[in-house]
Known about the structure:
The complex is a heterodimer.
Chain A: H1 12-28, E1 43-48, H2 53-65, E2 69-74, H3 86-95, E3 100-105, H4 110-116, E4 124-129, H5 135-149, E5 170-174, H6 181-192, E6 196-200, E7 216-218, H7 221-227, E8 232-235, H8 251-258, H9 262-267, E9 273-275, H10 288-292, H11 298-317
Parallel strand pairs in A: 1-2, 1-3, 3-4, 5-6, 5-8, 6-7, 8-9
Helix pairs in contact in A: 1-5, 1-11, 2-11, 5-6, 5-11
Chain B: E1 5-11, E2 17-23, E3 26-28, E4 38-41, E5 46-49, E6 51-56, H1 69-79, E7 81-86, H2 97-110, E8 114-117, H3 133-138, E9 145-146, H4 156-165, E10 172-175, E11 188-189, H5 192-197, E12 201-202, H6 204-221, E13 225-227, H7 233-244, E14 249-253, H8 281-293, E15 298-299, H9 308-311, H10 328-335, H11 343-358, E16 374-378, E17 383-384, E18 403-404, E19 407-413, E20 416-420, E21 423-424
Parallel strand pairs in B: 1-4, 6-7, 7-8, 9-10, 10-13, 11-12, 13-14, 14-15
Antiparallel strand pairs in B: 1-2, 2-3, 5-16, 16-19, 17-18, 19-20, 20-21
Helix pairs in contact in B: 1-2, 4-6, 6-7, 7-8
Amino acid sequence: MKHLLSTADLSRAEAIDLLDVAEEMSRATAREVKKLPVLRGLTVVNLFFEDSTRTRISFEAAAKRLSADVINFAAKGSSVSKGESLQDTAQTLSAMGADGVVIRHAGSGAPHRLASAGWIDAPVVNAGDGTHEHPTQALLDAFTLRRVLNGKPASGAATGTEGAGLDGARVAIVGDVLHSRVARSNVHLLTTLGARVVLIAPPTLLPVGVGSWDCEVAYDFDEALAEHDFDAVMMLRVQAERMHAAFFPTEREYARRWGMTDARAAALGPECAIMHPGPMNRGFEISAAAADSPRAVVLDQVANGVSVRMAVLYRLLTAQTAAGSGTEGEA
Amino acid sequence: MRDTTLIRGAQLPDGTTGDVAVAAGRIVEPAALGTPDAVVDAAGLIALPGFVDMHTHLREPGREDAETVLTGSQSAAAGGFTAVHAMANTSPVADTAGVVEQVFRLGLAAGYTEVRPVGAVTVGLAGSQLAELGAMADSQAAVRVFSDDGHCVHDPLVMRRALEYVKSFDGIIAQHAQEPRLTEGAQMNEGAVSAELGLPGWPAVAEESIIARDVLLAEHVGSRLHVCHVSTAGSVDLIRWAKSRGIRVTAEVTPHHLVLTDERVRSFDPVFKVNPPLRRAEDVEALRAGLLDGTIDVIGTDHAPHPAEHKCAEWTAAAMGMVGMETAAAVVLEAMRDTEFSFADLARVMSTRPAEITGLSAHGSLAVGAPANLVLLDPDAPHTVEPAAHLTKGRNNPFGGTTLHARITDTFLYGRRVLAEGALAAPRPESGAAAWSV
């Protein structure tokens, strides 16, 4: 694994290895001295072409806990018409000696281009590209789910999940699948780890071609909840700009039909977790009571994000692969 | 006779082998030639009427960094094109007699291919007000093909009026069929691959709905319609249906849509970004079948050079378009390899039909007496495509690095050998002349 661009590229063994390393990281950071010296002297660049304070801070914390130096590069606008090109930016960073590049970009595929165009040699981590993928989000979701499924605390230091997948788990992903990089990464990763995913959305917010994905698709949230005994229900954020583009009639109708309302939250199975990649639109795709209920693991997801990103940076920047984790597809 | 050339032992489109004689810019009986000034040994080569491209972007005026009429003409000669139509989306737009005459004169001065400007249908390609089509038709450039290519004439009333209006000078509207609302922000074909890659999709229906509307409009007003770069199986069906009803519609396909599919987008390499987008394998099959049975009349390259900085970008920021004149014939032969497609078919779709549709009577024929616009093609010359060696300024050829088997060796433009044994030769400049002639 030279880069982390898409969860579709991860084998089951590679994914489990990353989750296991993330478990080690969560134990290490529970200690009094949170810092590990493993990336000392290396420089990680957070190259953010799109605002995302949460993801950037999470990567920054992860790199710093591994003792790497961190440069934050916020580049607004990327096309030729808007000034500096991706190529120039990449080559500038390369000349400054970046050992790893974490990229967030509004255009799907930009991290692939950065990794494959020959502009730089450093490993590239996709921190979210357009409506394509957000692999570290899916990894932190899988990490959180693995904890929940094994009856462990949803975040913090724990032991006993090492080597496990998500076999047999049933996960609903609800909402704007069409524009969601989180959904795409999760469908690949959760399925690779043995879970069954059900996408629940209005037909307007499902991509044409979703039928070829390795998951089930449902339009009716209540029917799907009645039919499946979900281990987790993941609510997706609906971006404000969708609300006026004829994807659904009104916010209220959306909330009634596809929102995690109080009634739906109350009807979930006793062990079912509520997940959300954040930031939440309270009262819209998720009710305040559902968001604040004990079954919500939203803040655990955030906490686990740092451990998972530590694991990813560690594996990529030290070019270490655990024995037996499978190296096919390595560049 | 003066300026005589004997092309000896070429295979002709009908499969026979024979000599082609050229004198004073025309094809003559070999027996009438006497001792030729030059002899071209064409053993193993195919002689075809010079290709006519209904769809190129030569970028001048305005984007001379991407292409000029001269470099585009040279690229055309290297691809075997003796006439090319230059689309109107220049800067300024070719929507006045002045601009089309400028492009026409630049073509005459370059002397590597007959450049026929396409006039814009609407002022500034904006889709609302008809450009002065009559003035462009009456100009020195004698425009007969009109297109807002790059933009769709989406307003049905404007399209109807344009179709009707050009009847007065036997013009034709070449439509870029793309419903704008259905393709806002579109980045690639909408389907299984776009769903996975998370790139905004470009549905086939956005093309097909416009074609359906336009063939019905053409039927209603009895006008000629040409459909640019057909890319979907549904479009082929619609055009087949329209032709069966006697509607005067002609259609074009690009070489790249006959070969490449949207699977290529998985690389996120913008060399595969093009409008209309690369479609599915089923569409490629339907396009090949349509070309074979005549539903699709012509090959149009949609040659669209871009400067490197517009392609060396992330997918979503990169420009759409591919260069294609220099590899067009070879790619078409490659695409049609496993079919009945013959060299006579190649002559039909790349020369005779486009010359007929656009009214270029000096092209499309190897008959005695016709202007000597012809090309020699080596069908067995395997080579790797090297965009860096192209004569076009554009390096955005999606076939770079692949092996093609056919190669253009010679191009004769009104009797002048402007491409000789694969190398560019002296042009046939017509500076001062008002029109192309022998």
